[in-house]
């Protein structure tokens, strides 16, 4: 080992950071993936429009695509018999294009727009509700598996229910969500043994970082969740740049102890709706790139798996002027940092 490498390793250990981050400090910190929220107005999209989206993701060097849901309430985004098929079956098209592009896809299950309202009830209500969600998402996975396993791009599943740090703090509530995640993740591994199962989470800073770490250890260890996607909360104004590292360290420790993969979701939007009201209509615009660059720097201290939320909404030229500018600034940042 060269002396310079030894010195870098020493200072990395001294500072408590990864030596690989220091060794690669002149390289750009890049997004490795993005979310995609399918919407009913995309039923009219032709294959050319989906191809354009995938092409833009390749320009941004995106290697992972997380489709947030494949069923939204009663609206399916894939071709099946039990629901009225929407015109062009976006999921089928996306998987074919992702095969050709070499992009791995995590496929979201059933999303219920009434989720936040339904979990804000007594444990007896929540238990019945989670049982319904389990049945619904299991059915979707069963229907989708024959389609998805044909595709080289299929990387696994995304459980659509986001886990916060308010609704599951009580012991009874926590056990309910553990049971739900255990049963669903176990079932998904049973029908697709070699595929990953992912879930996302966020904090409202309602509990301190140590309690947050303990909470996530207790959720992960009894379940078969493989990947935890932590939302950085900057765009939604749930965290700021001073508090974010505290919770990132907590979730990093929880995932390491539980031997799970940590992905960090960098929010590339700026919310213009009420961040404290889960029931208010969500409204946001593309964020300033200088802010996003700061988020990327913080995220890179804890994981090299950085997911944008979300490039199709806030960083694709066709979305609008602000999104086009963000797209261009990001590409310039990547190209200039490489030099």
Describe, in plain words, how this protein is organized in 3D.
With 339 residues, this protein is an alpha/beta fold. The chain folds into 2 domains: 1-26; 31-338, TIM Barrel (Alpha-Beta Barrel). 45% of the residues lie in helices and 17% in strands. It has 12 helices and 13 strands. The protein has helices at 3-15, 19-23, 47-59, 90-101, 115-118, 123-148, 171-191, 209-220, 244-257, 289-300, 311-314, 321-338; strands at residues 33-36, 64-67, 71-72, 75-76, 104-108, 110-111, 154-163, 196-201, 227-231, 261-267, 269-271, 284-286, 306-309. The strands form 3 sheets. The chain has an 8-stranded parallel barrel with strand order 1-2-5-7-8-9-10-13, surrounded by 5 helices. Strands 4-3-6 form a 3-stranded mixed beta sheet. Strands 11-12 form a two-stranded antiparallel sheet. Helix 3 runs parallel beside helix 4 (90-101). The two termini are 26 Å apart. InterPro entries: DUF4434, GH. It holds the Pfam family DUF4434. This is DUF4434 domain-containing protein. It comes from Nitrosococcus watsoni (strain C-113).
């Amino acid at each position: 080992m060269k002396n310079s490498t030894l010195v870098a390793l020493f200072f990395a250990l001294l500072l408590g950071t990864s030596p690989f981050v220091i060794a690669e400090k002149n390289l750009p910190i890049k997004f490795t993936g993005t979310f995609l929220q399918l919407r009913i107005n995309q039923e009219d999209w032709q294959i050319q429009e989906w191809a354009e989206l995938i092409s833009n993701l390749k320009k941004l060097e995106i290697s992972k695509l997380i489709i947030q849901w494949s069923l939204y309430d009663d609206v399916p985004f894939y071709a099946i018999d039990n629901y009225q098929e929407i015109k062009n079956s976006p999921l089928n098209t996306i998987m074919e294009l992702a095969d050709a592009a070499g992009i791995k896809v995590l496929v979201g299950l059933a999303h219920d727009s009434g989720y936040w309202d339904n979990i804000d009830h007594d444990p007896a209500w929540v238990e019945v509700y989670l049982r319904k969600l389990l049945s619904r998402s299991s059915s979707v996975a069963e229907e989708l598996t024959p389609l998805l396993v044909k595709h080289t791009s299929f990387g696994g599943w995304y459980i659509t229910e986001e886990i916060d740090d308010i609704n599951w703090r009580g012991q009874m509530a926590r056990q309910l969500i553990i049971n739900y995640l255990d049963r669903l993740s176990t079932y998904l591994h049973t029908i697709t043994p070699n595929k990953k199962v992912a879930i996302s989470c966020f904090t409202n800073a309602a509990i301190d970082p140590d309690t947050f770490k303990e909470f996530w250890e207790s959720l992960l260890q009894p379940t078969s969740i493989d990947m935890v996607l932590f939302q950085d909360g900057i765009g939604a104004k749930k965290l700021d740049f001073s508090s974010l590292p505290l919770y990132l360290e907590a979730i990093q420790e929880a995932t390491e102890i539980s031997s799970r993969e940590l992905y960090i979701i960098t929010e590339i939007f700026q919310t213009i709706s009420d961040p404290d009201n889960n029931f208010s209509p969500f409204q946001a615009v593309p964020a300033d790139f200088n802010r996003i660059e700061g988020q990327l720097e913080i995220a890179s201290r804890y994981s090299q798996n950085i997911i944008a939320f979300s490039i199709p909404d806030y960083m694709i030229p066709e979305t609008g002027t602000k999104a086009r500018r963000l797209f261009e600034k990001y590409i310039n940042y990547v190209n200039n940092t490489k030099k």
